[in-house]
Specification:
Length: 165
Amino acid sequence: MSGQRYLTKSKLKLALECPTKLFYNSKKEYPDKKIQDTFLEALANGGFQVGELAKCYFPGGIKIDELDYDKALLKTNELLLLDKVTIYEAAFCFDLFFIRADIVVKDGNSLKLFEVKAKSYDPTNLKASISNANGISPKWQPYVYDVTFQKYVINLQRNRVSNDS
């Protein structure tokens, strides 16, 4: 698997913004200027803080620190052999799809996915906050597509594993 180019959550988001961006992504001759943007860096740090706070709601979890896709997948799959486990940054792969899920809680045969976002909404009217007459509000679409893609990849991988057994 190493060296393989996967469709990840980040690349999916990029493709939804603009398919041309996906084409030029990771090409050395077209560097990403966002990498050196201090404002975007500060926003990302805020997102990391929210992610760390979310772990407090799911204490005792095990974080997958491996950056290598194969190692992260191996570690995740080893942990999923346990009857009960909480995993932070769990890795899942199916064909050319690869994701890291913020928080996954396994209890027996049940697997729950928790996606963490630093996004505000009106808690008194959640439906109106994320949807409108045309469906999902455009400002919420990237978040809904993100978690949908994760669920899709997890389901594909789990179905493959159960069919291989």
